[in-house]
Every structure is written in C-alpha cells, then in structure tokens.
C-alpha cells in the first residue's frame, strides 16, 4: 500500500475559503494540501462581490491591485420599484468610511488568482473526494480517507467544502447525530449570470449597479469591468417535489431559463427596456436554490475545523458569502500560526527532532477560533436573513413594503454607512505578515 501523504494542514475543498487559507499558509510557511473532489478547477457561480471587510487582507497577500485592474468598484446604485425610479444611492462613501470600495469581479478569474496564490497544482490535489476522517486523540495525525482508497494525514484538518460539506456530515455522524447538514431551503431560487460588455452602455454607466423591486420578484445587477453585468434574480421557487427542493444548482440552465422568468421585465440598461437584452449577452448563467443555516453548529471538533459555507451557509442578499469565508480563513490562519510557532519553539527548546503536536493545546486553539468566529457568523446569518426580508418586502405584520420604501427611497447615505460599520469596519489581517500601508478603515 502506498504510504499516506502527510502535511501540517489539510484543507478539504478548493473553493474560495479553502484556497484563501492555503494562500495564507503558504505565506506563513505552514505546509498544507488542498483536497478538491472535482477533476478540474470549476468554480460555481458567475460573479463575486468583495467588500472592505475582505479587501484589506487580500491587499496584504498581494491580490488587491489585481482586483482593482480586473474588477469594477460599485459607485452608485439605481433603485427602481417596477419602472418607477426611487433614487440613486451614492456608494462611493463606502471608500471614504471604510478605506476600500465594494468590488465586483468575475468569479472564475478571482478563483484562478487564488488558485495561483495557493501554488496551484503543487498544493491542490484534484479528483480527491473525501469519504471519511478519523481523529483519534492517541494518534499524532488526523487520518483522511479518499474515495480512491488512499489516505492523507495531517495535524489539522479544515473542512472548506461548501454548503453540503462532507466534513461536517462525517463529524455529525461520529457524534451520533443525523449526518445531514443543518441547512434549510428558503423557498427562493437565484438566477444569475455574467455578461459580455453591454454595447449601448458608456463611460457614465461604469460602476453603476441596479436594484429592481418587481411585484413578484427582485433583480440586482452589479457593474463589472468594461460595462459587463453580473445579475442575480430572486423569486419564489417551485416547491412541487422533494427533488426540486433538495437540488442546489440546477442542471442545464440557459439564458432562455432566465428569460422565462425575467426577460420581459424592465431594466434601465436594456436598450429596449426589457431585461432580455442583457440576458442574451450572457457568457454564463446559473440557477440555484437558496439555503441557509437552520441549526448553527460549532466550527470545530477536536483537531478538525470548519470555515465558510461548511460552517455557516447564509443567503446571498448582501453578497457576504465569499467575504465571510475570507474572514474565516484569516482568523484560522492566525490561530494556526500561533499554535505551530509555539509547538516549534517548544520542540526546539527540548531538543526534539519530531514535529509532534500537543493535541490538547491544538484542540483548545481551534475551540477558541470556533467561539470567536461563531459569534460573528451567527450575527451575519441573522443579518442576511433579516435583510432578505427587507429587500423582498416580506417583513411580518404587513409592514414589509413600507419599511422597504422608507429604507431604499429615503434613508440617507450616512445612514447606510452607519448601519454597515459592524460589517465593513471589521477588517482582519494576518498577524505575522507585514501590514498594509496606513490605517485603512477608521473602524478597523
């Protein structure tokens, strides 16, 4: 039998959170491997939103300038109720308040840049589906079993494998509880896409996003480089049949799928006024059911930690899924660096040649990470859920439409910024790397 590979940190899942953690580990000289079940790098989704709470650490590891070159800042948002314009919301004040704007960028490009930052094929093992893991306190390593029969050993295992996390299900099963993920279907479906440049748009349209509130659905378009558009439509899902409810990403989505739901709807950037003009310029489209956390779990157990959607899936109404995975990766990397540096110093002082880890200390380090991140993640899941109700006008007692209009039509920019301090003003960085120049946020 082939000897199992060994590493300090084994990351299950090659999505944004997993690759971010690997990229930071590489900067900190912590040995790591990433197990990705896909046979090739195939990020799901169309675009991605990167807010100030994630951009500071991305600048620290050298990716911010690339985001600026290949992304588009969100400078203003046009808000419509059907065809009636409510207002233009100035979003340049985000940069003034928090040191960075909000950027939109093609998900595939950003994922590729993270893959490179993590050292690509030298770190990521493709076609490596995990089927089991064993964390025996008597063993100096956690043992991970792959579908091909091979094994990988690590001092720490991190589950970054998404909303239907295998890591999380295995931990649940070993704890004697139902191995299904604790997520629930929200009853909504997202249809999203990323377009080629829209030919009728010009320089004045760069950086302009749109929120459109229709009677039975909502639509958001974020500005991307060269007047490309990243769109997300949200509507009630067809809940007839368990198979339709359980699916995450729909198979065989085409622009026609989106046009059936939104093609005739008004959009101010559409040359004819109908959104079909924009959808027909799509380079890729995707449809997915929306799930959120139902029973918030601990983010660590023993020498296994969780991050991103594997720990705290949330609705995408405020575009924080990727940003929270990046926050998780940053905080976890700081915890791991603190642990491994302490273990290394201790072993050197004692004249040991082994890299034996003090398991009890490691368990405590991960438990501290779980407690620290868990509180913020719970707040984000709750915020995302409540914001979704405001955005869709579905707050209880019949006040939803009124509250939505008061906020979106009349709340001044400073009110928006004040309300976002707790979210955008928290900007974690890697403790043992050189800091970014200057104090980026007055709230950091």
Descriptors:
single chain, 444 residues, alpha/beta, eight-stranded mixed β-sheet, seven-stranded mixed β-sheet, 15 helices, 18 strands
Tell me what the structure shows.
Helix content is 36%, strand content 25%. It has 15 helices and 18 strands. Strands 1, 2, 8, 9, 10, 11, 17 and 18 form an 8-stranded mixed sheet that branches. Helix 1 (16-27) links the parallel strand 1 and strand 2 (32-35). Helix 2 packs across helix 11 and helix 11 runs antiparallel to helix 12. It is globular. It starts with a strand and ends in a 20-residue tail after the last helix. The model is unreliable at 241-245 and 345-357 (pLDDT under 50).
Quaternary structure classification: single chain
Mean pLDDT: 86
* Count of individual helical segments: 15
Structural class comes to alpha/beta
Low-confidence stretches: 241-245, 345-357
The largest pleated sheet is described as: 8 strands, mixed
Large-scale geometry: globular
- Percent in strands: 15-25%
